[in-house]
Automatic annotation (TrEMBL):
The chain crosses the membrane at residues 39-61. Keywords: Hydrolase, Membrane, Transmembrane, Transmembrane helix. This is p-loop containing nucleoside triphosphate hydrolases superfamilyprotein. GO terms for molecular function: hydrolase activity. It comes from Zostera marina.
Length: 359
């Protein structure tokens, strides 16, 4: 009995052994040595049988796992919909929501993927989101968590996400029933860092993908933050606060303000921002994610196509109506440029002074 199993799996045994390096080739030569006593030979046969047993049970486990998977997927796939032709490991990314307030009708069997854009204020995420929403199958619902009561505690966060990902969230970004990718824009300081543990759990449990969008030039980001604060206080465009603009004229009005930067706190502020980015990436490392930089996507359309692939929607050209506010060299946009230059010259942030993108 034992021997017959061994024989039947002879080739498997050999394969198993050849997978291991040094040790096993020694074993093989031992088996073939005719001078060894029968006892030693028997021990070796026994060892083979044990190896064989381990091998067989590993195969069995593998098959069991394989059989289990379709049962798991029943929970996420809609029983009435045909199984999508994607890898089993990706099935947990697909959802067939049943919105409470309407039916998805003919798109009932269009699987929906869930995403979140993580970013920081003034990093181009507003522009990026309008770009994504230009896609017929993507619905990104804005800074849902800018309202404090939605991020008070983890249960209000998950309730809000549940509602969004069940396609029950209504915003100007809501598309038709055929939305194939639904998400939101989420600033790191809107409860993400404080609740990262539970949010990562939620993302992994529900198969939510994370898109990180950051700005490489944190000095430019700082100029934008300060200018935006100034605009909120002065409202030069017809008394309205404009975080984003849609014409060159408006952009040039907003760019007229040259903020002065506090050089005493400048380096520590830049450091703090850098650390926050690093922490966020670290926390979300186990989630399905991609990392983007504003400077790359404004100069390289391929980066945007990569995002569409990541979201699994068809590639198409996307446009945003937003116009960039600060297009001049940094030296013309900072009131105390010389002080700022001296503060950063020779530090790790020196490149922020010179790196201007070419549009
Ligand atoms: C998987 O589901 C099928 C029916 O859908 C059932 O017959 C089978 O026993 C299930 N397997 C396990 C391991 O639960
Ligand atoms: C995208 O939306 C269109 C129109 O609603 C729909 O016909 C199409 O099936 C959708 N594509 C995907 C990949 O969901
Ligand atoms: C969470 O916050 C909401 C308000 O946003 C509140 O109604 C609820 O009681 C809070 N839950 C817990 C467990 O603190
Ligand atoms: C201010 O409002 C007027 C009338 O509503 C409009 O014509 C004009 O373009 C606006 N100015 C700017 C800078 O948006
Ligand atoms: C994420 O984890 C992988 C390995 O698990 C590691 O190589 C990588 O450096 C980590 N990335 C971050 C940002 O921590
Ligand atoms: C644009 O991005 C793609 C990948 O997203 C990269 O392969 C390519 O080299 C980039 N092009 C330029 C000019 O940087
Ligand atoms: C920047 O620092 C270098 C030395 O690190 C110095 O030679 C140069 O003059 C400095 N530039 C300015 C504008 O201060």
């Amino acid at each position: 009995m034992v021997i017959s199993i061994e024989k039947a799996n002879d080739s498997d045994n050999l394969r198993l052994l050849s997978d291991d390096s040094g040790e096993s080739s020694k074993d093989v030569s031992v088996v073939r040595s005719p001078r060894k006593s029968p006892l030693v030979l028997r021990m070796i046969v026994l060892a083979f049988v044990m190896l064989c047993g381990i091998y067989i049970s590993s195969i069995c486990l593998k098959q069991l796992g394989f059989n289990l998977r379709p049962n798991l997927s029943v929970q996420v796939t809609n029983k009435r919909c045909p199984n999508p032709s994607i890898a089993h490991s990706d099935l947990h990314l697909l959802h067939y929501p049943n919105p409470l307030t309407y039916t998805r009708e003919e798109c009932e069997c269009t699987p929906v993927r869930l995403f979140a854009i993580f970013s920081m204020q003034r990093s181009g995420s507003g522009w990026f989101e309008t770009l994504l929403n230009n896609h017929i199958n993507i619905s990104s619902n804005g800074e849902i968590f800018s309202h404090k009561e939605r991020r008070n505690n983890i249960s209000s966060i998950t309730n809000t996400l549940d509602k969004l990902y069940n396609l029950d969230w209504f915003s100007s970004a809501a598309k038709n029933e055929c939305t194939a990718s639904v998400g939101l824009k989420w600033m790191l300081n809107q409860g993400v860092m404080d609740n990262h543990h539970d949010i990562v759990d939620y993302f992994n449990r529900r198969g939510v993908s994370a898109i990180f969008l950051f700005r490489r030039n944190l000095l430019r980001r700082m100029v934008s933050v300060l200018a935006n604060l100034h605009d909120r206080d002065t409202k030069p465009i017809n008394g309205t606060h404009m975080s984003h603009v849609h014409s060159k004229d408006e952009a040039s009005i907003l760019a007229q303000h040259k903020p002065a930067i506090d050089t005493h706190s400048l380096i520590s502020e830049l450091k703090k921002t850098e650390e926050m980015v690093a922490d966020a990436l670290n926390y979300f490392n186990s989630t399905r994610h991609t990392i983007l930089f504003y400077e790359d996507i404004i100069t390289n359309q391929t980066k945007v196509m990569d995002v569409l692939d990541f979201l699994n929607v068809p590639r198409r050209k996307l446009v945003s109506l937003q116009v960039k506010i600060h297009t001049n060299p940094l030296s013309e946009q900072i009131e105390n440029w010389n002080d700022v230059y001296k503060t950063l010259n020779g530090t790790q942030y020196e490149t922020f002074l010179n790196a201007d993108y070419r549009l």
